[in-house]
């Protein structure tokens, strides 16, 4: 064993052991990470779900395409003038920060993530009749490698509907559901029927 000089070789050996223990496992683990795990880490590094996904103000208004599938007409209350429905909303938009090349990630072309991980439009039912403006279930969001984001949450709504029973029982009723952003003007976020 070398001697003298204040134990410099121990410091060197300690440093080599430190590098081996700390850095080598990261390299091995990094090589073992599943492609989807790597993709998730890469996509959401620095992503802020509170910021509307536009590169600059010239891209405004941002377009959110909205569709709706009626699952069940639960009830129409003529006296209270309220329609109770079970629906699936469909919201679709582009998020430039959520694009990737599938060749870099084992040809993965889509992923599903929890809704709180991504920016979501604050689309609500304006003609709500019971004060419950939110969707019923915060289901996962589908993200395509092109940056297209698709969210299809189920919802049960009670909406106001002016009902005219003058020609009962031969009347036709037309009840609409009016959706839009609660806090953002149409100059910043524009919803289009899908």
Automatic annotation (TrEMBL):
<dbReference type="GO" id="GO:0045211">
    <property type="term" value="C:postsynaptic membrane"/>
</dbReference>
<keyword id="KW-0813">Transport</keyword>
<dbReference type="GO" id="GO:0022848">
    <property type="term" value="F:acetylcholine-gated monoatomic cation-selective channel activity"/>
</dbReference>
<dbReference type="InterPro" id="IPR036734">
    <property type="entry name" value="Neur_chan_lig-bd_sf"/>
</dbReference>
<feature type="signal peptide">
    <location>
        <begin position="1"/>
        <end position="30"/>
    </location>
</feature>
<dbReference type="InterPro" id="IPR002394">
    <property type="entry name" value="Nicotinic_acetylcholine_rcpt"/>
</dbReference>
<dbReference type="Pfam" id="PF02931">
    <property type="entry name" value="Neur_chan_LBD"/>
</dbReference>
<keyword id="KW-0770">Synapse</keyword>
<keyword id="KW-1003">Cell membrane</keyword>
<keyword id="KW-1071">Ligand-gated ion channel</keyword>
<keyword id="KW-0472">Membrane</keyword>
<comment type="similarity">
    <text>Belongs to the ligand-gated ion channel (TC 1.A.9) family.</text>
</comment>
<keyword id="KW-0732">Signal</keyword>
<keyword id="KW-0675">Receptor</keyword>
<dbReference type="InterPro" id="IPR006202">
    <property type="entry name" value="Neur_chan_lig-bd"/>
</dbReference>
<dbReference type="InterPro" id="IPR018000">
    <property type="entry name" value="Neurotransmitter_ion_chnl_CS"/>
</dbReference>
<dbReference type="GO" id="GO:0004888">
    <property type="term" value="F:transmembrane signaling receptor activity"/>
</dbReference>
<keyword id="KW-0812">Transmembrane</keyword>
<keyword id="KW-0628">Postsynaptic cell membrane</keyword>
<protein>
    <recommendedName>
        <fullName>Neurotransmitter-gated ion-channel ligand-binding domain-containing protein</fullName>
    </recommendedName>
</protein>
<dbReference type="InterPro" id="IPR006201">
    <property type="entry name" value="Neur_channel"/>
</dbReference>
<keyword id="KW-0406">Ion transport</keyword>
<feature type="domain" description="Neurotransmitter-gated ion-channel ligand-binding">
    <location>
        <begin position="36"/>
        <end position="190"/>
    </location>
</feature>
<keyword id="KW-0407">Ion channel</keyword>
